[in-house]
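Trying the structure run again after the queue cleared.
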Amino acid sequence: QVQLVESGGGLVQPGGSLRLSCAASGFTFSSYAMNWYRQAPGKERELLATMSSAGGLTSYTDSVKGRFTISRDNAKNTVYLQMNSLKPEDTAVYYCRAVKGRVEYWGQGTQVTVSS
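Done. Tokens:
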């Protein structure tokens, strides 16, 4: 049974940091590229960061470049998103996604709220 389980969300003040985790099971994690997305209320789901299967390639959308860092530990079947200098506009539900060709899996999401 394929599972992606996000954790680490919560309430944080502007300027603060959070680290999200996404634990994978039920498939060969190390063969899949991993993404982090987010979706704010009333907005479309937005791709934030991508990491290749072996971890050698990363990319970020402009709005998080320099503040967010994606990483993965293939031994632990886990992908992370380190989020620094958080802003109120970062408030959203954050999702991880595994992709290999036309096969994709999604997690259930974790809420991040940035507010004073």
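The longest strand covers residues 92-100. Worth checking whether this holds up in the mutant runs.
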